[in-house]
Amino acid sequence: MIIGVPKEIKNHEYRVGMVPASVRELITHGHTVIVETQAGTGIGFSDEDYVAAGASILPSAADIFAGADMIVKVKEPQSVERAMLREGQILFTYLHLAPDFPQTEDLIKSKAICIAYETVTDSHGRLPLLAPMSEVAGRMSIQAGAQTLEKSQGGAGLLLGGVPGVAPAKVVVLGGGVVGSNAARMAVGLRADVTILDRNVDTLRKLDEEFQGRAKVVYSTHEALEQHVIAADLVIGAVLIPGAAAPKLVTKDLLKKMKPGSALVDVAIDQGGCFETSHATTHADPTYIVDDVVHYCVANMPGAVARTSTFALNNATLPFIVKLANQGYKDALLNDVHFRNGLNVINGQVTCREVAESFELDYVDPLVALQG
Question: First CA to last CA across the chain, in angstroms?
């Protein structure tokens, strides 16, 4: 199989779908890898590094899309990239389709086989290809939030951990999953006053055992959420419904009750955001203010620490890339129900129920679509 790795083109996106070590792994399995020139320069890999691993360097994304049987990316394909997809071509990347109808529509029209990292599952019900970026984004959310609270950024002028004699900032984390737990660990490490809200009692028990009172864990009711958000200096939005749009937990009315100079970091923005006032921003212009509350809603947060993020992502995705290349997409997906959960669109059919429901599109069971 010919695997193509284009250079990412989203604003301030320096990650790359495959590092040279991953390329070499595919080469040893007898496959061909083509890489767009300078695809890895943002994280310190030259074209020569890829050539040494066995890849061929091509001058443009158009050449990569035209020559590859499978495209491996990081971020969802931008409109110019979607126009280059063709029928029967495999696309393996993050998609986040539920809040993005234009992308969904283009992928349907392309008739490509579109597999989303974020909906692949494992035998424990976890999301193994989303987890590494969730870990990065969760930890980064506290760094971003701490900076956002500075006066020069529009915040209240608070130091997250306080100092002796001055109380620390109150950090509220909405969701205790991978993002939320990593955010809480960072916030606790900086000595903030941390509260985690979640509706899964087992999750709350695990977090309570981990933090041993260094972070408060609270069952999330509407009343509890309102009470803690109003009192917060920094709110981290870390909720996830796999494949679906994020629920709007903080409404416009609730936002108006928050303290002036408080901040929101919406890590769920890839899935539409969990604050009603959220809209996607970029690393070039990461924040905006609504009702005196600073919003940080960068849609590719891990891209800021691109080298760490790329290695973490490649560690997770490489076995799946190898499986697709060795077995072909049909056998790879038919033989693995958890991998099959990653199939979102194939041959013009939507095979992710949450995406179909988001846009009132016809849903086709992925097993049926693959056997059709």
Answer: 22
